[in-house]
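Internal tracking record. Fields below are filled automatically when a chain is submitted to the structure queue. Please do not edit lines marked as system-generated. If the sequence contains nonstandard residues, flag them in the REMARKS field before resubmitting.
Queue: standard
Priority: normal
Entity type: single polypeptide chain
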Amino acid sequence: MNHIRTASRLFGESLKTVCDVDPDRAAKVRDAAPKAAFVNDPRRILEDPEITAVIISTPAETHFTLAKSVLESGKHALVEKPMALFSRQAKELDELAQKNNRVLMVGHLLLFHPAIRKIKELINDGTLGKLQY
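SYSTEM-GENERATED OUTPUT FOLLOWS
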């Protein structure tokens, strides 16, 4: 739901459609993105020529197949991490995006969050002590 809320705030009425295979989530989607349509078949997204970009926030084992379908349909893709389960799949997606002149991006949203940046600063300047793992 985080991606839906964020996309709704950023894009407003431009957020056209949300897809979830669980129809019970429709009410939550309507609360988060009241202007967006709700569908439970990803093909509806892929076949809609008005949709130019897709956010994939699904179980990791579905990322490769969905991202590949999105890129093959001529749309840009933001894929939640991991982009794929195997490096060969990630390479294939990258090559497909380049071939189709599409943006393929992995979601590293918290990387730029102020709290994460502050923690990094505290680690780097030694305030938190020696990092051990």
